[in-house]
Amino acid sequence: MNETTLKSILNSVARGETSIENALQTLKHLSVEDIGYAHIDHHRSLRKGFPEVIFGQNKSVDQIIGIMERMNQWEKIILVTRIDPDKAATVISRFKDAEYHDDAQMIYLAKDTIPVTGKGTILIISAGTSDIPVAKEAFLTAKAMGNDVETVFDVGVAGIHRLFSHKKMIESASVLIVVAGMEGALPSVVAGLVDRPVIAVPTSVGYGSSFGGLTALLSMLNSCSSNIAVVNIDNGFGAGYMAAMINRV
Amino acid sequence: MNETTLKSILNSVARGETSIENALQTLKHLSVEDIGYAHIDHHRSLRKGFPEVIFGQNKSVDQIIGIMERMNQWEKIILVTRIDPDKAATVISRFKDAEYHDDAQMIYLAKDTIPVTGKGTILIISAGTSDIPVAKEAFLTAKAMGNDVETVFDVGVAGIHRLFSHKKMIESASVLIVVAGMEGALPSVVAGLVDRPVIAVPTSVGYGSSFGGLTALLSMLNSCSSNIAVVNIDNGFGAGYMAAMINRV
Amino acid sequence: MNETTLKSILNSVARGETSIENALQTLKHLSVEDIGYAHIDHHRSLRKGFPEVIFGQNKSVDQIIGIMERMNQWEKIILVTRIDPDKAATVISRFKDAEYHDDAQMIYLAKDTIPVTGKGTILIISAGTSDIPVAKEAFLTAKAMGNDVETVFDVGVAGIHRLFSHKKMIESASVLIVVAGMEGALPSVVAGLVDRPVIAVPTSVGYGSSFGGLTALLSMLNSCSSNIAVVNIDNGFGAGYMAAMINRV
Amino acid sequence: MNETTLKSILNSVARGETSIENALQTLKHLSVEDIGYAHIDHHRSLRKGFPEVIFGQNKSVDQIIGIMERMNQWEKIILVTRIDPDKAATVISRFKDAEYHDDAQMIYLAKDTIPVTGKGTILIISAGTSDIPVAKEAFLTAKAMGNDVETVFDVGVAGIHRLFSHKKMIESASVLIVVAGMEGALPSVVAGLVDRPVIAVPTSVGYGSSFGGLTALLSMLNSCSSNIAVVNIDNGFGAGYMAAMINRV
Amino acid sequence: MNETTLKSILNSVARGETSIENALQTLKHLSVEDIGYAHIDHHRSLRKGFPEVIFGQNKSVDQIIGIMERMNQWEKIILVTRIDPDKAATVISRFKDAEYHDDAQMIYLAKDTIPVTGKGTILIISAGTSDIPVAKEAFLTAKAMGNDVETVFDVGVAGIHRLFSHKKMIESASVLIVVAGMEGALPSVVAGLVDRPVIAVPTSVGYGSSFGGLTALLSMLNSCSSNIAVVNIDNGFGAGYMAAMINRV
Amino acid sequence: MNETTLKSILNSVARGETSIENALQTLKHLSVEDIGYAHIDHHRSLRKGFPEVIFGQNKSVDQIIGIMERMNQWEKIILVTRIDPDKAATVISRFKDAEYHDDAQMIYLAKDTIPVTGKGTILIISAGTSDIPVAKEAFLTAKAMGNDVETVFDVGVAGIHRLFSHKKMIESASVLIVVAGMEGALPSVVAGLVDRPVIAVPTSVGYGSSFGGLTALLSMLNSCSSNIAVVNIDNGFGAGYMAAMINRV
Amino acid sequence: MNETTLKSILNSVARGETSIENALQTLKHLSVEDIGYAHIDHHRSLRKGFPEVIFGQNKSVDQIIGIMERMNQWEKIILVTRIDPDKAATVISRFKDAEYHDDAQMIYLAKDTIPVTGKGTILIISAGTSDIPVAKEAFLTAKAMGNDVETVFDVGVAGIHRLFSHKKMIESASVLIVVAGMEGALPSVVAGLVDRPVIAVPTSVGYGSSFGGLTALLSMLNSCSSNIAVVNIDNGFGAGYMAAMINRV
Amino acid sequence: MNETTLKSILNSVARGETSIENALQTLKHLSVEDIGYAHIDHHRSLRKGFPEVIFGQNKSVDQIIGIMERMNQWEKIILVTRIDPDKAATVISRFKDAEYHDDAQMIYLAKDTIPVTGKGTILIISAGTSDIPVAKEAFLTAKAMGNDVETVFDVGVAGIHRLFSHKKMIESASVLIVVAGMEGALPSVVAGLVDRPVIAVPTSVGYGSSFGGLTALLSMLNSCSSNIAVVNIDNGFGAGYMAAMINRV
Questions:
Q1: What's the CA gap between A63 and C173, in Å, rounded?
Q2: What is d(CA H183, CA H185) in angstroms, rounded to the nearest whole number?
Q3: What integer is the mean pLDDT of D24-36?
Q4: Four-residue CA torsion sign, F79, F80, F86, F90
């Protein structure tokens, strides 16, 4: 429930089109709705400018559908992250407008076109082809939150000239998300080139002593560049969300 | 060397006050000056809007002084981080305007008052009294980069009402830095209250299984709030720098 | 074998209804029964007020059934933890009264209704919907041990007002179990609100640097609240057991 | 500020002995007092039945004294933990009634004899002589919170008969704290003997792969006994606090 | 190839029953036979009193059969460890006398009854039912190496009286193998009771912070009893082998 | 695209056989070709003497084929590493000359016989039979890069005389690759015997506290021999590549 | 108190030289003596053939002296391990016959020459000069327990021929202790040469990724030789004790 | 003892200038000299082309001097690594020609100028000023082994243009050593630019989650560039040694 929805209810009451009884009924669910297995935070769109996002992993299909049904009454956009194709197929069959992005393992349900409200462009860079699914999760999230988003994929440090060939795009972005697995060196290099905030996303791409992304994570946390902050391994969603927050400041 | 200094050299040449010979001599150091033990990146103020910051740990007093002397010719502000009181005493005796902040273990050399150029207010919150030194490092860095900065200390989650008593200040900040050791829970709670980017800084405050800040670090990386990104343990400097970058977007 | 069963045997002997021969035969198994692959501790109900609980993981169906058959002769309640649905189906088909709770992955065999003997109410709080299975394991265990148990699910710190809407229930509990994955911050916040013992249960919910629950575990061990003690990752059973012990003190 | 203090202020107002002006002045500090480097939680004694305890590590002598001075106006008991002898000497010279326990590294300031309000006896057992300092921290904390506390030291599993010689004391305790370093096996054995809650405290006693207490911590978290919950390494204070909470249930 | 086989070849030559040509052909394989994917160490039975044991994990069925065929010409006993049922079925179909023990995941091929040559009795104790597979691997290995071996299973420290009921057997063993998962406390307790060497075997039984047996391993390495040495997690084979070596000293 | 290809294009232009238009078209892809999901670094063969190698893990079959198609226009040799048999079957059906080595999980596409350009012999030694797949990956890589390569398998330190029987081959190699899992001791021993560089490759062969190769990795990094450097766990490819680089120095 | 002492008391009573009163007084301390900070296990010499050994680390000088004074009444040999030179100086000044070995950091108090009761020779091998202190601790312990002990120092795998020059001594030992830091490879090589039990002792010698001996420890636990068992890092005492136990079997 | 020394002894015997008796006396120490606390490997210069290097850490001054005295009779160059200034002062006072390099913490004793025998130039690059001590250790080692060595310091990835300004030197080196702490990204970038082997040296420079160099180590092991192999944290000596070996291939 964002401010627009709220205002329209109040206007409707003001105009006598909605009885106070009905409006009350509607608004009392506004803050937190307890449906047993979940406390849905309807107030979040008002407080944080974007509704709760459903973390699909470990939730049953029924739980996901149940939460979406409640949210669907109030929200214009619903995201479900970390949902595998099997569970997603059942879920999207229940909601028109819902689409599944299988690289990002994400359900995206938008009732209208989302207007661009972010100030500048968010640029998402991936070190390798294998990092693209995480980059896509960031892309979809930032898009859903009303931003212009651009992408450059597979420009890791083993051939640094690949990166430099996109220098203009890099220098004109207002926020950058850099996604990398293995040694996770790319965010340091990118951050050294710009005077903009860089969100570094380690991925679990690699093997052996990459330890499921731990190496990339540690590498990014210890960057010798200072305009970097880091999110969890494979957390494309968090990076996209944080970048959107920054792009509104 | 920031844009102002660069322009004044070029103007001086244009006006014939400086010979081309002299200007060349000056500018050829502009990019990178190799002094044997260091490559000073004079270009950084132009590229990133703020000069290189000297990481004091592991450097000798002579090395620090040597680097500062070269930077001092071009820059209006010089910061040295992670320098202990003994080394700092020798260093500041050599530079007028240099002052040492012993809680933050930082040297601060500003030739003029730094004008505020950041858009909103940066708020720095610490969970405990013991986290203040790291918070101070963030404070001094963000100040040096031209920001309005406010602080609230010792409002950790063991008594959450202490935090809520500062709700107004929290909601009006444009970027928040939250510093916490031990279980590192505070950034999650703060981020849940605002629609602004939160930079989380884990500290090494704690004992036993806090493992020198690792617990707080992991906790922050796994936050269930999404408007959070994390910097290295005790990296107040990086948090202040990142917040300043965001406050300019 | 609890005290009631023991007394009824002795009474039966006293009344001449059971020969000494038969009683001896019965009682000689009382302490420890060695069935080759297991030493069944029949004495435990006397010593600890609750019979041995069967840890299902790594045990074969035959082993579980074998142990249950021996216990079933003496005990009024039998619990099997960490048993997957396939193995459970075979097991419960052999024991009437046995029921399987598939969210908690637990078999529950109670011959009678269990009387409430615990003094106050045990409240179980989960941070997320995904933590419910662990919370359910705690719930069933505490119930089986004779306690009034209540639950509040999905009230994590990303929207702290969800927690506060249950303040009354929280303040009236005599023991609290708080279950959380990811950053594991909820127990610290809850413990800060009450003057009661809090059992913190980390769960393996999360990904990347949650490291299978390690992050939540470390976070809880380093809580800045002091009325907290912690059990193993996903150990809902242990938390329910410990809470029951406390509720009897 | 506990309930007694609060009542006496209100009575004084009721009797006209204190002006409303003065009472207001007094009470407005009641909730949280912000002294710059600390937010003192005066409300805690009301909310949790025991005042805030000062974590001495990483705090300066001046900060500790400053906090104690404010607390001293309202509280009957003040504890400072993890304070080394040098800092403690300065601090206790400023407060009559303050005494320093150098094995537990704790300052103890009690204005009156503390009445016993806990229901049963808390028994503290240590595995070795080297674990005594941690056990003492638990002892002093539980004492300060109004409990009968007994101790048995150096009865580790290498000579298990030493433990059994205290069987009576063990079986009559209402809550047990078991402190052990190295392999941390003692709490499992003790918990197997009783039907009471056991708080396990790992210590950093050991060397090599004891990893500063990590081994004992992990051992205790994985106990095959179920009536156990664990606190941080060397956290005698937390164990004493938790035991006191349990002893009141 | 043990000493008996070697002597019989030499005798055969001495008696003129075998030509020098043939004997040479035979003996030249004696030391090391290179079959491309393996260097078979035929000399090992002479040097170490027991032939090479085949580590089945990661080897293909063809490789295992190939190695066994060569060994089968010279050795009276062949063991294959860590071989799953599918691979084992194919392998044992090729060698008469070969039998598969599916709890221990081990192939055992003995041409004759193995005479007992070890001096005393090796006693194998397991903490739980779930630890039996590892205990069985130790059992089969020690048996194959010519020892009297006895077993006691499921006598962990949660009910320590179960252990004490076998005191006589424990005190009369010459070497003890103690197998335990979870907190791994049993070896410390057993070693405290005897003046004999104890081989401690940690198992991967457990969950959460047992970290696949790491906790039990660390626990055993830090035992406060001194007559303990430790082998790798789940390494029943190594424990049986080491015990056999000791039983011959 | 290596120097030969480049020269032939230029010659063709010089001879008027290719129009400048066409040559331009050809050469503009030379540096980096962006195909959306990948930036193909055609320049690499010129810069590094060997084309980019495709890391198959985490890439889809379509992505691998797409990249190979572009490379196939310019390169004489293409390698794909870490590709499982299913994906490989589809890929090699699309490229004649492509062959799949299923022990090394590698696709090898060479248009011509590769001439030997390396100076000396590269010797690859494996500690066990189970380490052969990693050794084979190194073998194929070094072969593809134009080297004489020899192998000795299964000569680990448990029977050190197996190694010594190959002393001549060991002493005559110019570079050695030593592959070992478990305790990873073999590279130290080999390096002690020669005055040549040794590339140590830890493998994930082992169980329990081998932690997926971490133990072997750490062991090799701490070698008391000095002519050793280490690559990632199971990184046969990197070892072969590095050895080839050394063999050209 | 060993059997000899016990018999002499009983004989003295039998001969009427000691009153029953006095003998009782003497014997009642025999089992466990509680001196507040320690439970002295006087029974241990009877049960385990060697008295309790005092772990000096973390104990105060007064505690060590107090324990020694009680033990001194009954025991013929007292060992204190891990005691630094300062504390040791005070302690040995109080006991004639006590001597301090500063390489092993051990106090050794033997009233008589210790007769050799072990069956064969214990051989202690160190990989480097830096490992000697740990080897010496093993040496003194095994000596004190009545064994012939020999030593070979600094024969690590970087020059394996140094080891082979002692082949005879190695092959004639009945138990071997092998002490190594860094990569910890030596025990595997030694164990491959003999058919005797090898106790492997990792040391903290090394730097960087030796992680205080963790690398050597893991290496030894994963040995491809099977006649190896491992003790804690730097635990020379435990190795000597275990070897002595084995040498008596 | 290198080949030259050996030949001169043999020539001297041939010419009758040395008696066979004396020559024998001399040569019998040649292989390994056992001086109790060390086995000096005089054979190493013959076998490996460079004498044993003394690891100073954990050795006493007397041990170092003792070893040097024996080596000094035969060798033309002696290195001692990881020796602190205090110990070094005593040592160098005993050997003329010995000099101490206090940045590298190394003693260097060369009787003559060392001739350059390496084929190309070894280039040592450091990421930061703080990494110079480790780089210097590599420098001195490679120099001592007869190589042309050049250095470029402080060209880390935060300002990547600093590196590119040395492109010519980088491309003309035959072997490169790249030294970096913190995120350890520099070796990946450098290796991407050249077709030469790169030895990566992680340093312990950094704080917090750099974990004493572990982050840099892991980062380098997971490099997406393939011409990289890694040595232990801070192991400048090993890097210099390995580079020298490569430069001779």
A1: 28
A2: 6
A3: 71
A4: negative
Quote the DSSP letter at residue G180.
Answer: E
Q: Count of CB atoms within 10 A of residue G22's CB?
A: 13
Task: Say if residue E112 is exposed, middle or buried (CB neighbours under 10 Å; 0-12, 13-18, 19+).
Answer: exposed
Using DSSP's 3-state secondary structure scheme, residue G30 falls into: coil
Name which of C216, C212, C226, C218 is nearest C156 in CA terms. C216
Give the CA angle between residues H238, H241, H244 to the nearest 5°.
Answer: 150
Among the partner residues F44, F58, F214, nearest to A209 by beta-carbon distance: F214
Residue of C36, C39, C58 lying closest to E162 (CB–CB): C39
Q: Among all chains, which residue has been given the structure tokens 């048993």? A: C83
Q: Hey, is the C-beta of A113 within 8 angstroms of any chain F C-beta?
A: no
DSSP output for chain C: --HHHHHHHHHHHHTTSS-HHHHHHHHTTSS-EE-SS-EE-TTHHHHHSS---EE-TT--HHHHHHHHHHHHTT-SEEEEES--HHHHHHHHTTSTTEEEETTTTEEEEESSPPPP--SSEEEEEESSGGGHHHHHHHHHHHHHTT-EEEEE----GGGTHHHHTTHHHHHH-SEEEEEE-TT--HHHHHHHH-SS-EEEEE-----GGGGGGHHHHHHHHT-SSSSEEE--TT-HHHHHHHHHHHHH-
Eight-class DSSP state of F204 = -
The whole-number average pLDDT for the span D228-236 is 98
Nearest to H206 among A128, A220, A222 (CB): A222
Report the b/e string of A27-50 with b at 16+ CB within 10 A: eeebbbbbeebbbbbbbbbbbbbb
Is B237 an 8 Å CB contact of chain A? yes
Please state the φ and ψ torsions of residue C181, each to the nearest 5 degrees: -105, -150
Q: Is F193 on the interface with G (CB under 8 A)?
A: yes
pLDDT of F46 = 73
Chains that touch B (3 or more CB pairs under 8 A): A, C, D, H
Looking at the complex, does the CB of residue H166 fall below 8 Å from at least one CB of chain G? no
Question: How many A-B residue pairs are in contact by the CB < 8 A criterion?
Answer: 93
C124 touches chain A (CB under 8 A): no
Give the one of G36, G38, G213 whose C-beta lies nearest to D208's C-beta: G213
Could you read off the pLDDT of B125-171 as tens digits, one per residue?
999 999 999 999 999 999 999 999 999 999 999 888 889 889 899 99
| pLDDT classification of H188: cutoffs 50, 70, 90 | very high
* Residues C107, C65: Cα–Cα separation, whole Å: 12
Q: Is the pLDDT of residue H90 over 80?
A: yes
Token pair, residue E6, equals 């070697």
Work out the minimum CA distance from A226 to partner chain H, whole angstroms. Answer: 8
Question: For tokens 């200094």, what's the residue?
Answer: B5
Helix (H, G, I), strand (E, B) or coil at A38: coil
DSSP states of B20-46 as a string? HHHHHHHHTTTS-EE-SS-EE-TTHHH
Q: Buried b / exposed e across D179-216, counting CB within 10 Å, b at 16+? A: bbbbbbbbbbbbbbbbbbbbbbbbbbbbbbbbbbbbbb
Which residues in B lie closer than 8 A to residue H208 (C-beta atoms)?
202, 204, 212-213, 217, 232-235
With a CB-CB cutoff of 8 Å, which residues 131-160 of chain D face chain B? Answer: none
Is the CB of residue F197 less than 8 Å from the CB of residue F190?
no
Residue D203 Cα, gap to closest chain B Cα (Å): 8
pLDDT tens for H1-19 read: 566 666 777 677 777 787 7
Sorted by sequence, the CB contacts under 8 Å of residue E33 that are 6+ apart come out as E39, E40, E42, E70
Please give the pLDDT value at position A6.
63
| B103 in D contact zone (CB under 8 Å) | no
Which candidate, H218, D44, B34, places its Cα nearest to that of A206?
H218
- Are F157 and G185 an interchain contact pair (Cβ–Cβ within 8 Å)? yes
| The pLDDT value given to residue D205 | 96
Q: What is the largest CA-CA distance in chain A?
A: 67
